[in-house]
Write a structure and sequence with these properties.
Blueprint: E1 8-13, H1 22-39, E2 43-46, H2 58-66, E3 73-80, H3 86-100, E4 104-109, H4 116-123, H5 136-145, E5 155-157, E6 160-162, E7 178-180, H6 184-192, E8 196-199, E9 202-204, H7 211-224, E10 234-236, E11 240-242, H8 248-261, E12 274-276, E13 280-282, H9 284-292, H10 295-298, E14 302-306, H11 313-330
Parallel strand pairs: 1-2, 1-14, 2-3, 3-4, 4-7, 7-8, 8-10, 11-13
Antiparallel strand pairs: 5-6, 9-12
Helix pairs in contact: 1-2, 1-11, 2-3, 3-5, 6-7, 9-11
Protein name: Monooxygenase
Organism: Paractinoplanes durhamensis
Pfam families: Bac_luciferase
Length: about 325
């Protein structure tokens, strides 16, 4: 058990918007990311939502964020690769990484797209039955981002000059790729392939039914199979809502939100036995005390606390401000100089 002071403080947002006025929601997300930088957060992460009222193109949003910020790391948690062509995604990721000055931290996952039977006629009308949604899809992305050949042709043809690898090539991006995993197998695979590991508020109950114990087992499995061992990077993402400066109305809504979601944390859900973490609501001191007793938290030194899905812009401002000024310091974190 590492049990070290928190080294990196990050946050994650889903970037909700009104379908009748989508620009306002996207602008709010960009403002929240800029606020995070101003407050000293080390990283800001966006989620990926297709055919919903949340960010559907995180790479494009982070390209915009890269031009409004100068220091904060920008991540995706996560891009489901079942919706993506790995070569095209590698081009987009490298482009945004270069625009950001080397601050991009792409997180990905595998598996069939959500609601696949309903969306495959639109997504893969000709190849739906032949698409490979296994880890091989991540391996393709890794090879392209890391500069391995995408073709055996390179050189000049007429006036056109061709490269054998994906261009632009962003040196260093390959070491900043993250895998979002919820199982022991995913944790081990990510370690074996020299990725970083994102562990969130959902895990698969394979060998136990205690969330923190399961999460710790995933972290240990990842590091046991990673060449960097105990130095391999893991980021924990729980829903954390400090209330130090919240109004009475905000506190009531936050508690109601957590209470509504609590029943699903009592036991594993569905055939896959997915187990959800509780949401942490309270003063920064109360939350810090609970996190310090959490086996998964004690094994990491960086986090990306998730903002709740359905709150208002002012709520996120309050939560982020308290997280950076109260909760982070209570966990031993210090903002950059």
């Amino acid at each position: 058990m590492r049990d070290e002071p928190l080294r990196k403080l990050g946050f994650l947002t889903i970037g909700l918007f009104d379908g009748d006025n989508p620009r306002a929601g996207h602008e709010s997300t960009l403002e929240i990311i800029k606020l995070g930088e101003d407050l000293g957060f080390d990283s800001a992460w966006v989620r990926h939502r297709h055919l919903q009222y949340g960010i559907s193109s995180p790479v494009a949003v982070l390209a915009a964020a890269s031009q409004r910020t100068s220091r904060i790391d920008l991540g995706t948690a996560v891009i489901p690769l079942g919706w993506e062509n790995p070569l095209r995604l590698a081009e987009d990721l490298a482009t945004v990484d270069i625009l950001s000055g080397g601050r991009l931290n792409p997180g990905v996952s595998v598996g069939p797209p959500m609601q696949y039977e309903k969306v495959k006629p639109a997504l893969y009308p000709d190849t739906a039955d032949h698409e490979d949604f296994s880890y091989a899809r991540v391996e393709r992305l890794l090879s392209f981002v890391r500069g391995e050949p995408a073709t055996d042709f390179a050189g000049t043809e007429g006036f056109e000059v061709f490269s054998h690898r994906v261009e632009p090539h962003a040196a260093g991006l390959g070491s900043r790729l993250w895998y979002g995993g919820a199982s022991l197998r995913s944790a081990q695979w990510a370690g074996e392939h020299r990725m970083n590991f994102l562990t969130s508020s959902v895990v698969k109950a394979e060998e136990a039914e205690d969330f923190a114990e399961i999460q710790l087992s995933h972290i240990r499995a990842f590091r046991a199979h990673h060449p960097d061992g105990e130095r391999a990077r893991v980021s924990q993402g729980l829903v954390v809502i400090p209330t130090d400066s919240a109004t009475a109305d905000q506190k009531a809504r936050y508690l109601a939100y957590a209470e509504k979601r609590t029943p699903r944390t009592a036991a594993p859900q569905g055939p896959a036995r997915m187990l959800f973490s509780i949401d942490y609501v309270g003063s920064s001191e109360q939350i810090a005390e609970r996190l310090r007793a959490h086996a998964g938290f004690r094994a990491v030194d960086e986090v990306a606390f998730a903002l709740p899905f359905s709150f208002e812009h002012d709520d996120y401002v309050q939560i982020l401000t308290d997280s950076a000024t109260k909760l982070g310091p209570a966990l031993g974190w210090k903002p950059p100089a």
